[in-house]
Design brief:
The complex is a heterotrimer of chains A (191), B (206) and C (207).
Chain A: H1 2-13, H2 24-29, H3 34-66, H4 72-94, H5 96-102, H6 106-109, H7 113-124, H8 129-157, H9 169-184
Chain B: H1 2-48, E1 54-57, E2 70-78, E3 83-94, E4 97-106, E5 111-118, H2 170-205
Antiparallel strand pairs in B: 1-2, 2-3, 3-4, 4-5
Chain C: H1 2-14, H2 25-30, H3 35-58, H4 68-90, H5 92-98, H6 109-119, H7 124-154, E1 156-157, E2 160-161, H8 176-206
Antiparallel strand pairs in C: 1-2
Helix pairs in contact in C: 1-7, 3-4, 3-6, 3-7, 4-5, 4-6
The chains are: A mainly alpha (191), B alpha+beta (206), C mainly alpha (207).
């Protein structure tokens, strides 16, 4: 029950992009095409889950016993950066098909603040390992959802008469504000 | 090969320097960070019980009866020597997530005061529970948590009956009231067992 | 001296990270529901930027080119952690209300961008002026957005009531969608400003 709650809150109530302003760079930059946004969404899901699976044990089994919790930021960012490199390397060599579709997004992911935020929050919310993984999946699905929503709307926007002063980036933020208002409705979902 | 070894060495030196300097900053700030929660708690306790001098940790002795509401902390508040009440720091679900309240209970089983420590509800609506400028009784300038002060635990604690709700935030009002009532009941029950001896003496004397 | 001043001014206006370069947006939107958060975030960011740039500039000759990115990350992460610890110790309220956004300074593109493009090539003085200019440029935009949102959304400025008592706050502005709307309008204004600047430049050339 608690796991479902963690998942739903992460996807809808506290949507990582729409409610928490994380990962905005890729949200604006990678949504000009629906296919691309889906690719980015899955790449982020993959790395977020992997990063959580790596950083949670590191924190609880290495940093805590050694009293080195103050190195958390330093260690986590390095782990994520090297993880991304490893995944890229592995895909390139062994699954070139997947690399061709996902590989181009990987370098962008290191600086995606959503992933780092998830790994920090798993610690500060005192989640267990299972809860952390569920939270990671939830946040990433929320990200994927926001990406696809905006990409779909951008597709429609191409043929819509956008006021001149809002053309380009401004209309994306205004649209996001409107999607965000709709998402505010989810905030009473969980009691 | 030599190049890689040199790279590794440079990296290691930078990493070591970073870790060492962080260890220093950590050692300086650590006591302050750890004291911070205690400072905040003591400050809120003194607001509720102005005459409080000593605090005794009784966290293990008071248990919540509601599985959704957790007691993070409980203290027996004392003046110079005699107990004057109990305070429970309780966390429970509200509209926007966990809400943490500090509930003070007097020896007379009434609410000494309520402080909202953490609340993530909608700004301007539910979050008004924690707004010192929002009054449920405008004329008397009584805030939402303020209305509980002096209320007896034998009361109904029913929102819209004896508890005034925050406008357009029934869920927040109900959730917070429930946390207060749960904390108050458990604390009062525990007080019963502690003061049984002393109160027996006083009633015996009558 | 003149060129130093120019470096400083670049960050505040012409190359303002938020307005002109449009980087580091996440934190800019997330913490601007109140002015005090905006100031806190701006100063934290300026601190990390200043010291990371100084350290990297001082050591730029011994940092091997192929290992520079990990070293930059280590240095930035170290200063971010320091800010995080100091905030937790001495400004617990501020630290709580900004939550995860303080540690996230480490992935703020502004810092990595400046370090890579400027600090790794320049000497001490220009680096100091550059980081202060960029930091201040970031801070003032944050405070401006935050002031707009807080005054309309809550009727206060840095917690002090500024609107008349009968003013009904427009909640929307301090909620997340309000942040997106304000920023959307700001970018729109900005594009207009850029176009105007480009036009006047052209006019100057012609004259």
């Amino acid at each position: 029950m608690d796991l479902i709650k963690i998942f739903l809150v992460a996807v809808l109530v506290n949507n990582v992009v729409l409610m928490r302003f994380l990962a905005l760079c890729s949200y604006i930059g990678m949504t000009s095409d629906v296919g691309q946004s889906v690719g980015m969404g899955f790449a982020v899901t993959f790395v977020t889950v992997l990063a959580t699976a790596a950083t949670w044990p590191i924190y609880h089994f290495i940093l805590v016993p050694l009293g080195l919790t103050f190195l958390q930021i330093l260690i986590f960012i390095l782990v994520i950066a090297s993880l991304v490199q490893l995944v890229e390397f592995y895909l390139k060599k062994n699954i070139p098909g997947l690399y061709a579709s996902m590989g181009i997004y990987l370098p962008l992911i290191t600086t995606n603040c959503a992933i780092l935020a998830v790994t920090f929050e798993n610690i500060s919310f005192k989640y267990s390992f299972i809860e952390s993984i569920v939270y990671a999946v939830g946040v990433s699905i929320g990200y994927l959802l926001a990406m696809v929503l905006l990409a779909g709307l951008r597709d429609r926007m191409k043929s819509s008469p956008v006021p001149k002063f809002l053309q380009g980036t401004p209309i994306l933020f205004i649209t996001t504000a409107l999607i965000g208002i709709a998402f505010m409705g989810f905030s009473g979902l969980i009691k | 090969m030599k190049g890689i070894a040199k790279l590794g060495l440079v990296l290691a030196i930078f990493a070591a320097a970073a870790c060492a300097s962080l260890a220093v900053v950590y050692a300086i700030t650590k006591p302050q960070i750890e004291a911070q929660d205690q400072i905040a708690l003591t400050a809120s306790l003194k607001e509720i019980f102005p005459e409080a001098v000593n605090f005794e940790d009784v966290t293990d002795k008071i248990a919540s009866k509601d599985p959704n509401i957790k007691f993070l902390n409980a203290v027996l508040v004392k003046s110079e020597n005699a107990p004057i009440g109990v305070a429970v720091k309780a966390a429970g679900p509200s509209y926007g997530g966990q809400a943490t309240l500090l509930v003070g209970i007097t020896l007379q089983r009434s609410i000494a005061g309520v402080r909202v420590l953490e609340l993530k509800d909608t700004p301007g609506l539910g979050a008004n529970a924690n707004n010192p400028g929002y009054f449920v009784k405008k004329a008397e300038k009584v805030t939402f948590p303020g209305q509980f002060t002096g209320k007896y635990l034998t009361d109904a604690f029913a929102v819209k009956e004896d508890v005034i709700a925050i406008t357009a935030s029934t869920i927040t009002s109900k959730s917070l009231t429930k946390i207060i009532k749960t904390a108050g009941d458990s604390a009062a029950e525990w007080l019963e067992t502690v003061t049984a001896d002393t109160s027996a003496e006083t009633t015996g004397g009558k | 001296m003149k060129s130093l001043w120019k470096t400083f001014k670049q960050g505040i206006i012409y190359e303002n990270p938020l307005l002109m370069l449009m980087i580091g947006l996440c934190s800019a939107l997330a913490v601007t529901s109140s002015v005090s958060n905006g100031i806190g975030m701006g100063l934290a960011m300026t601190f990390v930027l200043l010291f990371s740039e100084i350290v990297i500039s001082l050591f730029r000759k011994v940092i091997p080119n192929s290992a520079r990115i990990p070293i930059f990350i280590i240095i930035i992460a170290a200063f971010t952690t320091m800010v995080d610890l100091v905030m937790k110790a001495y400004f617990p309220e501020l630290s709580k209300s900004m939550g995860v956004f303080i540690p996230l300074i480490v992935v703020n593109c502004i810092i990595m961008g400046r370090v890579e493009a400027f600090a790794s090539k320049q000497s001490f003085l220009p680096v100091v002026f550059d980081s202060l200019g960029m930091g201040l440029g970031y801070t003032w935009v944050l405070v401006a957005i935050a002031a707009f949102r807080e005054i309309l959304g809550n009727g206060t400025f840095a917690g002090i009531q500024v609107m008349p008592g009968n003013f009904q706050p427009i909640l929307f502005f301090i909620l997340p969608p309000g942040g997106f709307l304000v920023f959307g309008l700001l970018t729109s204004f900005n594009i207009w400003l850029k176009n105007r600047m480009a036009k006047s430049e052209k006019a100057k050339e012609r004259a």
